[in-house]
Amino acid sequence: xxxxAILSNEHRVIEVVLDCLEQIAGQAVKTGKLDRDSAxxxxxxxxxxxxxxxxxxxxxxxxxxxxxxxxxxxxxxxxVMLAEHEQGRxxxxxxxxxxxxxxxxxxxxxDMFAGAANAYVxxxxxxxxxxxxxxFPLADRMMTDEDERSLxxxxxxxxxxxxxxxxxxxxxxxxxxxxxxxxxxxxxxKSAHAGGGCGCHHAKKD
Length: 206
Ligand SMILES: [Fe+2]
Ligand SMILES: [Fe+2]
What we know:
Elements: H1 3-31, H2 36-68, H3 77-103, H4 107-142, H5 145-163, H6 167-182, H7 187-193
Helix pairs in contact: 1-2, 1-4, 1-6, 1-7, 2-3, 2-5, 2-6, 3-4
């Protein structure tokens, strides 16, 4: 399997939680109260799984490997992706800062939470599409078998040493719980649990 396929599979998991976040924000606006537990779980997922683990693999390993092959670090597609990761961190911070007040029914906090959530959802969906359709095919064309093997080893390192054993699995479970609560389809989670390319060799769980 190509290292970009691992990242694309993670995109499918991230999209499940983006669908949930969209509903969490919509419900908060409609009911005038944010569901604190769900919002905290979603923000934790985006901070740890999407930004820490997934963007970590891209920023520390895939993008530098592309830059080493001649893709410019700034101004080109890699530069755009890095800027969007940074933009996403800002939205995550805003959501996180507003959770407590929004859960108390503070209208301004709900507005700010929902504004950041909706902007994050739109930005990350488009970001994922650009990576899947443009950046990753470009990476696939550039990488030799040897490059791909070393990227796979680097991803494993992120999973086991940087994120810690069981972290990936724990966030798949959070994604599953949120998806169930908000009626979001979970096909992507099943293949990730079955080891369908999430890249980490944790034990399969049913
Ligand atoms: Fe990315
Ligand atoms: Fe990505």
